[in-house]
Amino acid sequence: MRYGSIIKVPFGPQHPALKEPENFMFEIDGEIVVGVHPRIGYNHRGIEKAFERRTYLQNIYLAERICGICSDAHTTCYTQAIENLLGVEAPPRARYIRVIIAELERIHSHGLWVGIAAHEIGFDTLFMYVWRDREVVMDLFETLSGNRVHYAMNTIGGVRRDIPADTVPKIKHGMDFLEKRLKYYLNVVQNEQTILKRTSGVGILKPKDAVELCAVGPTLRASGVKNDVRVDDPYAAYDEIPFNVVTHDGCDVLSRIIVRCEEMLESINIIRYALDNMPEGMIRVRVPMAVPPGETVSRVEAPRGELIHYAKSNGTTKPERYKVRSPTLGNIPALCKMLMGAHVADIPIVLAGIDPCFACMDRMTFIDDKTNKKWVWTMQQLRRKTRK
Amino acid sequence: MGLDHATIKEKDKKMTTETFLIILQILVFPGAFFLFALAFLYEWVDRKILARIQSRYGPLYTGPSGILQPLADFLKLLSKEDIVPMAADKILFTLAPVFYAVLPLTTLFIVPVASQKSLVMFEGDLIFVMFTSALMILTVFIAGYSSTSRFSLIGGVRAALQMIGFEIPISLAMIGPAIAAGSLSISNIVQWQQTSLQWTVWLQPIGFAVFVVCSLAEMEFVPFDIPEAETEIVAGWRTEFSGRKLALLRLGRDLELVLASALLTSLYLAGPQQVWLIPPVVTFMIKTAFVVLMFSLLRAIFARFRIDQMVSGMWKYLVPLAILQVILIQLGIGR
To answer: Which end of chain A has the least Cβ crowding within 10 Å, N or C?
Structure first.
């Protein structure tokens, strides 16, 4: 239904479909979205600056807190970058433990997302069920590390905690249970008519657009493009573990759900293999406090997609520059493309479809949109501005 | 005239007791008080069943198994601050919740609850039920319109659009039993079912199914909770209401649940029935509780439709089905 007259509808920064503050200005013609203007910067935390003021050891804990869901992906990426600069490598057992934690995290993150997606289309029963079963992973995290959210497993040069032999059957038992449940959910998602009605053919992102707009992670793979840092640029122990990269060629929200569900099943297999083939040995090497000068880029396949950390050191105990490119930022242009032509009622599910984590990706810059002039302010100038 | 003082006094006394009884019936049983209690009870039943299906606990603390939770919520809302938006149309904004609570209550007087006969009955009260159910949606629209918030406005418009979808099939589904019983009065339909010893649900299963689906839409239950889709438009048409107004809206919603289950019970499940020693009101409550259970089950197993999908689905599938049912009745099947 189009009426020819365009109205502007703001979406956020405060909106029940968005768990984090972010603003999208939609141009709407009748019921159809004809224009999207994202406006990020509502949740900027200045983490990159904070990196420069802390030592490398303290920064592990800061990196952990970039994201509350994929906290392990960020520390893996951070420790890898610093290990690169130091020229050390984590011991084999530590690399296997990193894989196990990363895959457990993928299950918990994707599970969380499936629940939220179900909630966005009003299917609260599925939401409750998935989150209930996700508790299995959370409990495993608690057993392994003592924490449910910030596991603090990684450290520069290895991991901080071993996976003892007596917890291995526990993890395997949990995986068996999850596999059974996930197969059931996959069946539900593919056959339940109301879910299909709301998700299939919604938020289309063609493979060509996906590549051109630099989409990452499950969003890209749901458009049928085989791209995964774990395979393309293996880190930790991924080069020794056989697994499939899940893709789906539906290009819509439904295929994003299916890709994530199947990825969880794949993660379960990876964890099983890693547990069986975990080498014995030490779990960390000692590293010096100061890092020799240099710069490096580290890549990790976070649950939401490719995560890039850049580090520049100057020989002291603190980094000179640190940069984080979280997957959500890479998906924003693709998101705008998906939203074009969507129904107003489909906005929440399409928006949730990329599994947005706005707090991790938020960036800000001072810009005058009329003259296109950019500038940088110091903290003093910023304070003076707020006092006015 | 042959009336002496004593007879007049006797007649007077009789009339006073009669009037007193009628007032008692309207206010206490099976009138307002009983219906309020039933409304709160069924809200609890609905919430508890839905929660258990979703593997949650549901209400737990107020009263045994949280049975008093709806009442506690109601009282709490009554004591809360009542905010009226600056831009709102004050009169309509204040009246809408009152109408929303009163309309289902009034309609419930027409539906037999404690015996075969309802408190108020006249030939054609079924038409009155259709009229009030349309008025209820109109009230929803006015509530959304008068709060002048964009979420409320969209919610109100969606409710009105939804009505375009379910109004025709629900009316046709109400007509089915009326044709079979040969009466437009709900009490007569109930009586006909009981005397002919057959429940309409066995005679007209299609009509029953259509009625259930349309009731879900009328009460804005999943998959038809489009006017209050939380993730899209916050709380829909009731976004701006707070305090006493919200309390009334919630009461109205609960009464609507009672009304829908009572209508379904009367039109299709033979209403309140005296079975052996069990009084009619108990069978009525068992039947309506069963209907509420069915509603809760249905609202737990679907995702929400989009408004265009809902309206086109209603016209594509439900309207033809409802018409088919009426045709079948005309052909002599199901009466």
So the answer is: C
